[in-house]
Each structure stands twice: as C-alpha cells, then as structure tokens.
Amino acid sequence: KDRDFCLVSETNLHINGHFIGKSKKQGLKRDFTWVQSIGVQFDSHKLYLGANKVAKWDDARDELSLLLDDQPIVLPPGRGADWESASAPGLKISRLQDANSVTVEVAESFVITARVVPITAEESRIHKYEITEDDCFAHLELNFKFFALSPQVTGVLGQTYSAGFKSPVKVGVAMPIMGGEDKFAASDLFAADCKVARFAGRAIESVAGHNFPEVACGSGSAAGRGIVCRK
After folding, report:
1. Whether the Cβ atoms of residue 201 and residue 44 lie closer than 8 Å to each other
2. Burial code of 42-51, b = ≥16 C-beta within 10 A, e = fewer?
3. Neighbours of 125 (CB within 10 A)
4. Contact 186, 193 (CB under 8 A)
5. How do the pLDDT tens digits run along the chain, 231 residues long?
6. Are 157 and 213 in contact (CB under 8 A)?
7. How many C-beta neighbours within 10 Å does residue 105 have?
8. How far apart are CA 215 and CA 130, in angstroms?
9. Largest Cα–Cα separation, the chain
10. Domain membership of residue 101 as a residue range
C-alpha cells in the first residue's frame, strides 16, 4: 500500500498505478490493496485519473479527478458527454454515467475505462477489511484495451503481452502472488524510473492493426484479496 508501480511501459506509453490499502493482518503475507489513481504518459503528455478520498459514498457525486499536463479537465455534465483535447490530438474522454465512470481514448493507441467505486460496509464485513467511517477507500476499477504494443512491452500488466511470457503465478494457492516488486516499483506516479522502464516519449515499433486482449482490473474477487486483473 501507498506505493507506485509500473503497469505498462513502452517507448511511447507509460502507465503507473498508485495503490492504497489496509495493512496486512497477522497471518497474511500481503496488504489489502486497491488502485487509487493511474498516471498515463504518452507522447509528451501526462494524464492523471484518480479517485478522491471520501468518507461517506454518494453515487450521485462525482469523485473522479482528471488532469492533463497538471491542468484540471472539466467534463460536461451528463451521461454521454464528451471532452476532446486541443493540446493532445486524439485524446477523447467520455462519460459512461452521470458521475464516476468514463472512457479515455487516445486514437490508435489505447482505451481505458475507469470507474470510481467504494468499499461497501458489506464488503468490509465479509472480507474483514475494517473500513472505518472516515474513509470508504474509493478506488478505480479499470479496463485496458491496447492497439499498438511492441513485443518488448513491460510492466506488471504489460509483460503479459510480451513475446514468450510465462506467468509465475500459482493460481491454486489461497493468495496468488505475481512478484516483481524490485522490477516495477516507481518513485512517483509519473516517474518512468522502474528498472524495466522503456518510456522515451517517441513512437514505438508496434504490431500495427492488432487488437490486444482487454485487461479488467478491480476489487471484485470473491476471495477478498484486493486488486485482481483478468484478460
């Protein structure tokens, strides 16, 4: 918890995630964690998507923060409303609901669907998260779709698209662990300084015209282990 990790790294795309969570309990090897925000670097731009810290959840109140190059993005109200960037050609953000749910698209590069959700009292009771009344741990449920990745792509998620990737995860154990903290830890949400970072802000030698499998990341694990990603 309270750490930043590289999710995807290419020469022209770098995505870090900031994780929040609850300290591990006695007998557990890992913290309960959720993605609070992501920092997306593409070309020379920096895009921030984050869930605000909130005590009591209200579905009607927008708790999603968006910034492009450190400037707040103000989306028009209402489901289906669009915003297009004048400074970052091809960047489009659309509301999927009146609040807390958007798609972010950079033409011919990626589509990210982001939804802000809380940890409910019932989830906390079932999984023993011990969520208190001063923080409902609002976090992001994410879906990634990529259109241009090279065989050398890396990152916690990116590596799963690379040529010859073999997962180290033992899915049969109670808490599968992917590992790689030493390779993917970053010093900041927008720092491309993990050991395997490839970001240079230039065009990549991509697999043109190929639609890569989607990755969905969220906290909907029946086992209550925090963030789970599936292709």
Report:
1. yes
2. bbeebbbbbb
3. 11
4. yes
5. 899 999 999 999 999 999 998 776 666 666 788 999 999 999 899 999 999 999 999 999 999 999 999 999 999 999 999 999 999 999 999 999 999 999 999 999 999 999 999 998 898 888 888 888 889 999 999 999 999 898 889 999 998 888 777 776 666 665 556 667 889 999 999 999 999 999 987 554 555 455 677 777 676 544 444 556 666
6. no
7. 19
8. 29
9. 52
10. 3-230
Measure the N-to-C terminal CA separation of the chain; round to a whole number of Å. Answer: 24
- How many angstroms separate the CA atoms of 207 and 95, rounded? 29
Residue spans of beta strands (DSSP E) within the chain:
3-10, 13-22, 32-42, 45-51, 64-68, 71-72, 82-84, 91-95, 101-106, 110-117, 139-146, 185-186, 215-218, 228-230
Q: Decide: 62 and 99 in contact? Cβ < 8 Å.
A: yes
Name the residue with tokens 């809380």.
118
Residue labelled with tokens 């953000």: 93
What's the structural domain count of the chain?
Answer: 1
Both tokens of 224, joined, read: 């209550």
